[in-house]
Specification:
- With 538 residues, the chain is an alpha+beta fold.
- It has three domains: 255 residues, Protocatechuate 4,5-dioxygenase, Chain B; 106 residues, 2-Layer Sandwich (Glycoprotein, Type 4 Pilin), CATH 3.30.700.20; 80 residues, Hypothetical protein ph0010, domain 2 (Dna Ligase, domain 1), CATH 3.30.1490.150.
- The protein is built from 16 helices and 21 strands.
- Strands 2, 3, 4, 7, 8, 9, 10, 11, 12 and 13 form a ten-stranded mixed beta sheet that branches.
- Helix 2 runs parallel beside helix 5, helix 11 crosses helix 14 and helix 12 packs antiparallel against helix 14.
- The radius of gyration is 24 Å and the shape is globular.
- Pfam families: AMMECR1, Memo.
- This is AmmeMemoRadiSam system protein B.
Length: 538
């Protein structure tokens, strides 16, 4: 059925988040990198494997709550390539409703592009037939019947027109899940936990679906009081102790719906709901992690709260933020060490791994550029075939054309399977390096591809620039510098080919980070880590 296009345009771009696409991508990438850095320091088994099935994330302006939300989105990034639908449920800040409201939009626009609405999914939950799954035929104010899968649903365009709670989640979802995303945008007004829970159950889906609950915590109490109130709410959410009152979480109605699902499905489809971290609008973006993540043994004793930093102003009225994630509880994974035995025999040499990594990157590039090859397979098929590609890994993909750099994108911390990291960065290098225009299909035959697999970054002992330049190993070390105030950058070891002198190497890296090339320091003003890479070239 061909639908009549009805795009809901961004209402809070330029206010809650940047309206400029490049600025927005930069801000999201910076906040995700911050979150990945926190998560990367956790013990190996602090969190379940895989992408969460549901998250609770704040919805204030990105400068206030973006880093807290990024904790959940950095974990959700594990589902890129698998998750293609996000059911986003937020509260109603402007236009109150009774029930859970969908709207007649066929897509939501953000500065990063339009995201289609899963109209068929909405229609199913509403109890409409396939023939009626056309928003142009829906009447504003119409309600689902009592025998619908989600009887509390209704159609209400005004409550969506200026609402920010759902909208602010979409750019993060576009970034971590990629372009093949559909959404189900819903605003939950006055409704019981069971009514909202029925909506979530009706839209639960399989591994292709994530549930995103949008909620801040307390509003405009002095910082010290807000923290105490929020800690109590966090404990209640983790303990499934609902319902939460809207005074303590503005998204209480959607939160209570998720808690209803967690309680009612505890025997058939149990969920493991974890508190990740929290902050307030007065914490200048600094997020405090749950103590049970830093030391998983605390969880058995119910010690889940965060050790928060000293408030900058204890009496400042603030808004509270927290992120949570829920994973399905499954039986213990069986040992799959034999599963990849036959693949290991064909991938136990550097040359074989180089061929596989380069083929994977090129395959992802062809699919992104729309270049059809009858012999191509889905990149995930290659990842699934080799155990070393399924292990967590960090990579950079570098594209050159005629010996000149054409794009280079990567990550420093291993937070997802190496194969997926390579495949995604191949596309990112071609499309998201801000120094270059996007690669076109006509350029593909001219490109050379290099994949660099990073070792784990290790802190350096140097406490001054002079010591750093002595300690560096030219030709071997990749270097990360970070002053803790947003100036962070890295050079791969390959950069030594052009900057063989350690002083020049450090000077150019300082400039890349936004600091003067002449910067000197003592003590811990700049933190330095080094790493090695395994470079796979064509």
């Amino acid at each position: 059925m061909k639908l009549t296009e009805n795009i809901r345009h961004a209402a809070v771009a330029g206010a809650f988040y940047p309206a400029n696409p490049r600025e927005l991508r930069t801000m999201i990438d910076r906040q995700l990198d911050y979150a990945r850095g926190l998560l990367n320091e956790l013990p190996a088994h602090a969190l379940p494997q895989g992408a969460p099935k549901a998250v609770i994330v704040p919805h204030a302006g990105y400068v206030y709550s973006g880093t807290a939300a990024a904790l959940a989105y950095a974990l959700l990034e594990r589902g890129r390539g698998t998750i293609h639908r996000a059911v986003i449920i937020g509260p109603t800040h402007r236009v109150a409703v009774r029930g859970v409201a969908m709207c007649r939009a066929t897509a939501f626009a953000t500065p990063l592009g339009d995201v289609p609405v899963d109209i068929a999914g909405e229609a199913h939950a509403f109890g409409l037939s396939t023939a009626d799954a056309d928003p142009a035929t829906w009447r504003n104010g119409m309600r689902a019947s009592d025998d619908a899968p989600a009887p509390a649903m209704l159609v209400n365009d005004p409550t969506h027109a200026r609402e920010h709670a759902v909208e602010v989640q979409i750019p993060f979802l576009q970034t971590v899940l990629g372009p093949d995303l559909q959404i189900v945008p819903l605003n939950a007004g006055d409704a019981s936990p069971a009514e909202v829970g029925d909506v979530i159950r009706a839209l639960w889906g399989g591994p292709e679906t994530v549930i995103v609950i949008s909620s801040d915590l307390s509003h405009y109490h002095p910082n010290e009081m807000a923290r105490a109130l929020d800690d109590r709410t966090i404990e209640r959410i983790v303990n499934l102790d609902g319902p939460i009152h809207p005074n303590f979480a503005c998204g209480a109605y959607p939160v209570n719906g998720l808690l209803d699902v967690c309680r009612r499905e505890s025997h058939t489809n149990p969920l493991d709901l974890r508190f990740l971290g929290c902050s307030t609008s007065g914490d200048d973006g600094e997020v405090a992690l749950s103590r049970s993540l830093l030391d998983p043994s605390r969880r058995a004793h119910g010690d889940v709260l965060a050790h928060r930093p000293v408030p900058l102003n204890p009496d400042e009225p603030v808004v509270g933020y927290a992120s949570f994630a829920a994973w399905p509880i499954t039986s213990d994974d069986s040992d799959d060490s034999d599963e990849s035995a036959e693949s290991a025999t064909t991938a136990d040499s550097d040359s074989a791994r180089a061929r596989i990594a380069i083929n994977l990157a090129r395959l992802s590039l062809r699919r992104y550029l729309g270049i059809e090859d009858p012999d191509d397979v889905d990149p995930q098929t290659i990842v699934d075939e080799y155990d070393w590609l399924r292990q967590p890994g960090a990579s950079f993909v570098t594209l050159t054309e005629g010996g000149h750099l054409r794009g280079c994108i990567g990550t420093l911390e291993a937070y997802r399977p190496l194969g997926r990291d390579i495949a995604e960065h191949a596309i990112d290098a071609a499309s998201r390096d801000p120094r270059f225009r996007p690669v076109t299909a006509s350029e593909y035959p001219l490109l050379d591809v290099e994949v660099s697999v990073l070792g784990r970054p290790e802190p350096m002992r140097a406490t001054s620039r002079e010591e750093l330049e002595v300690e560096l190993r030219p030709g071997a070390d990749g270097l990360i510098i970070d002053d803790g105030h947003g100036h962070r950058a890295t050079f791969l070891p390959q950069v030594w080919d052009d900057l063989s002198n350690p002083h020049d190497f450090v000077s150019h890296l300082l400039m890349k980070s936004g600091l003067p090339a002449t910067t000197v320091w003592n003590g811990s003003a700049i933190r330095c880590h080094r790493y090695t890479v395994t470079a796979y070239k064509e």
